[in-house]
Amino acid sequence: MKRAFPLSRVYQLLEPGPVVLLTTARKGRANVMAMSWHTMMEFEPPLVGCVISDRSFTLATLKATKECVINIPTVELAKKVVGCGNVSGRVVDKFTAFRLTPEPASRVAPPLVAECYANLECRVVDAKLAAKYCFFVLEVVKAWIDPARKRPRTIHHLGYGAFMIAGRTIKLPSKMK
Q1: For residue 13, which phi and psi values (nearest 5 degrees)?
Q2: H-helix or E-strand spanning residue 94
Q3: Judging by beta carbons within 10 Å of its beta carbon (0-12, 13-18, 19+), is residue 26 exposed, middle or buried?
Q4: pTM (predicted TM-score)
Q5: Which of 30, 102, 133, 173 is the most buried (most CB within 10 A)?
Q6: pLDDT tens for each residue of 118-137
Q7: Greatest pairwise CA separation for the chain in angstroms
C-alpha cells in the first residue's frame, strides 16, 4: 500500500542526471560548483536548463559573463565533488583545495576540469527565468570526452548525502536515432 511522501523530498524522485561540476570565471578567478539540478531541453543545438542557487557564489558570475563549463565527473571523483558542494567559492579556491586541474577551454573563458570524463563548454542563451527561479538555458558550444574511459560511472544525488552510481546499461528497441 502506498503512503504519502513529503513534498520537500520530491526532488529525490526526479533527479535525472549526474552530479556535475560547473566552472565559471570572472576577473581572472575560476570557480567550481557542484550541481545536480539540470536537464536536457533540446538535442540540436544541445540546450541544457539548470538552476543555480541564489545563495551560490556562481550565480553573479554566470549572470555577468554568460559562460560556463559543465564538467561530468565519475565516481572516482565523488569525494571531491561533494567537497566542492560543501564549501563556498567566496572563501575557498576549490581548484587548489580539491586538487582539481583547470584546463583551458576552446570557446569560453571558464576552464575545463581535466579530471572529468566529459566537459561541455556553454553559453547562456536564455536567462528570462533567472530573476524569479535562478533558471538558465545554456547552449553547449563545444563538447569534449575522454575516449579512453569506457563505461564511465557517474554519480547521481538522491538527497541528504545519498548518491546512486550509474551502472549496467541495457539496450531496447527504439525508433530514436
Answers
A1: -85, -25
A2: helix 94-97
A3: middle
A4: 0.92
A5: 30
A6: 999 999 999 999 999 999 99
A7: 56
